[in-house]
Design goal:
7-stranded mixed β-sheet; Jelly Rolls; Thioredoxin_ResA/DsbE_sf; 3 domains; alpha+beta; Glutaredoxin; 41% helix; Putative cytochrome biogenesis protein
Length: 592
């Protein structure tokens, strides 16, 4: 029940997010109509349509996303017609009599006299097809849970609860707006001008949505306004019901609120309530760097459990801190356990994990949790996720995502002191990540994690879309920010894109300091040569650690490759990677 409450409250918060701006003109265009027969049906249509489309997009893969794109085009046309009917009813009637008749019915017939709610419902459906709320922690929880657990009634109900929360805020604003508009008409006699002004705002909103303003600029602007509030809701309610409230994320691109490194911690005691009990550590397919560990055997020790996976950029950036704590406090009684829970199929191979441990210099115990047994025992849904357990086996603190490293170390020190240990080391661990493990430039990340398998792919712009599970000749598409395309002969499956013939390429229009791409060599292990360009030229000093200044590199193993690190001012760029040999497997872009 608390999860549904959280979803509803997350939706309510969208009213303070700039991501709601593009749909406000459509809502307020009905402000002068009776709420029960105009505003309310529109909001119900909007909420129901968003819940249905978001469910399909989360669990059904590329075909649902492509179908929704056609729906968006129709919705844009319908709402543009609505705006024209409000702005120029006489002109529109002369030019396109049949269409204007529809527009007139949409804009004028849904009133109290006719009692006809169908036009308002239709406008709500169109608005629901266009609405792209910012994916903050709450919506990320719901959508990632849907992607992991598949289609079910709970997913749709949660999404509808989220949309209903947004509709509640909009309903209150609409009720207030209706009174304001009525007062304006009475005092100024300006009904026609108000109508035309609303028509102009509707057309501006249609143009903004068509240009992607709602999903690009406004999304980034919104993160700083609502993410901290949403994360606070998650943590507060999770403290009341740990089973219901485990947040969701998949190799998440952390929010700015999670990324800020705090000042040096004070040694004053923190409030660390008991959040639960260390569950059994059963179900790992293999333990590395130690014999299998159990909750019972760990009693008397302070334990840090780190859920991670080796191609997750957020996990990689947190590991230097985890590694430093393991080394610094091992003699004081701290036990660090890495739980490697895979996101991609290749991360299930123990040999790949063992190599990653060597590359990352991890020598603390790691459980290979291929069957998600430990993940489910903790009710966890984040990479990375840190759980802090005291000497009595109680979970006393957690942190999801990157950041708050100072506080995490203070928690470790306090739990060690509670266990009767004399913590000799003073000050914070001296940590500085390099390469892909370096701290991100969050202020300049305007590109999201992007998957190349059709199950979770977004913004794919090659003409014709995906051919699922079959070889196809793709052509590069025209790209705006955060769009990507393939060229050459590829086979795209639910998880990745595989190159069938040499010479294929991937293009991405991005804005971030760092660009990473999770890649694997050919199925038979043959390495794949490639060349990277940025805005059509060799990267030069902007090359990542896995290529040279000329952009040349080789895919020799399945892992995350850092391909771009901009040295100067960070700006929007076009990245292209061309593969000189066939067989490469491309999984996901991440940014830093």
């Amino acid at each position: 029940m608390l999860l549904f409450i959280l979803a509803y409250l997350g939706g309510v918060l969208t009213i303070v997010s700039p991501c709601i701006l593009p749909v406000l003109p459509f809502v307020f265009a009905r402000a002068d109509r009776p709420f029960l027969t105009s505003g309310l049906p529109m909001l119900i249509g909007m909420a129901a349509t968003f819940a249905a489309v978001a469910t399909l997009a989360a669990v059904a893969g590329g075909w649902a996303v492509a179908a929704n794109e056609y729906g968006r085009f129709l919705a844009l046309a319908l709402l543009a017609l609505f705006g024209i009917a409000l702005l120029f009813p006489a002109v529109a009637e002369r030019v396109t009599q049949p269409l204007v008749a529809l527009g007139g019915r949409l804009s004028e017939q849904a009133d109290a006299q006719t009692g006809n709610i169908v036009p308002s419902l239709l406008l709500g459906v169109a608005t629901g097809l266009l609405w792209a709320p910012c994916a903050g922690p709450v919506l990320g929880l719901i959508l990632t849970g849907a992607a992991l657990n598949g289609a079910n009634v709970e997913t749709t109900v949660l999404l509808f609860a989220y949309a209903a929360g947004a509709a509640t805020s909009l309903a209150l604003a609409l009720l207030v707006g209706g009174r304001v508009f009525a007062a304006m008409k009475r005092s100024l006699g300006a009904g026609e001008w108000v109508r035309r002004g609303l028509g102009a705002l509707v057309l501006v909103a249609v143009v903004a949505i068509a240009l992607g303003v709602d999903t690009n600029y406004l999304t980034n602007l919104s993160l700083t306004q609502t993410s901290a509030i949403e994360q606070g809701l998650i943590d507060r309610l999770r403290g009341q019901d740990k089973t219901a409230m485990a947040p969701a994320g998949g190799a998440m691109q952390a929010n700015p609120s999670m990324m800020m490194k705090g000042a040096a911690p004070q040694e004053d005691a923190l409030a660390l309530p008991v959040e639960g009990t260390l569950p059994p550590l059963d179900g790992a397919v293999e333990w590395l760097n130690s014999a299998p560990l159990s909750a019972e055997a760990l009693r008397g020790k302070v334990v840090l459990v780190d859920f991670w996976t080796y191609s997750c950029i957020n996990c990689l950036r947190a590991i230097p801190y985890v590694r430093a704590w393991a080394e610094k406090y091992k003699d004081d009684g701290l036990v660090v356990i890495g739980v490697h829970t895979p996101e991609f199929a290749f991360e299930k191979r123990p040999a790949n994990v063992k190599k990653a441990l060597g590359d990352l210099k991890i020598d603390y115990p790691v459980a290979i949790d291929n069957n998600y047994a430990i993940w489910r025992a903790f009710n966890n849904m984040y990479w990375p996720a840190h759980y802090f357990i005291d000497a009595q086996g109680h979970i006393r603190h957690h942190h999801f995502g990157e950041g708050e490293y100072d506080k995490s170390e203070q928690v470790i020190r306090q739990l060690l002191r509670e266990a009767g240990k004399t913590v000799a080391a003073q000050g914070l661990a001296d940590v500085e990540g390099t390469g892909a493990q370096a701290a991100p430039d969050m202020e300049n990340i305007k590109s999201p994690e992007t998957y190349l398998g059709y199950d979770r792919a977004e913004n794919f712009m090659s003409p014709g879309g995906f051919t699922r599970d079959g070889s196809h000749d793709y052509v590069a598409g025209r790209l705006k920010l955060n769009d990507w395309s393939l060229s050459g002969t590829w086979t795209v499956d639910p998880e990745h894109a595989a190159l069938d013939k040499a010479g294929g390429a991937i293009r991405y229009r991005f804005h971030a300091r760092d660009l990473h791409l999770v890649l694997g060599p050919a199925m038979d292990g043959r390495p794949v040569r490639f060349k990277v360009t940025i805005d059509g030229a060799a990267p030069g000093t902007d090359h990542g650690v896995d290529i040279d200044a000329g952009g040349v590199g080789t895919v020799s193993e399945q892992r995350l490759y850092q391909l771009v690190r901009q040295q100067g001012a960070v700006k929007e760029r076009t990245f292209e990677i061309e593969f000189l040999d066939p067989g490469v497997q491309a999984f996901a872009f991440t940014f830093g």
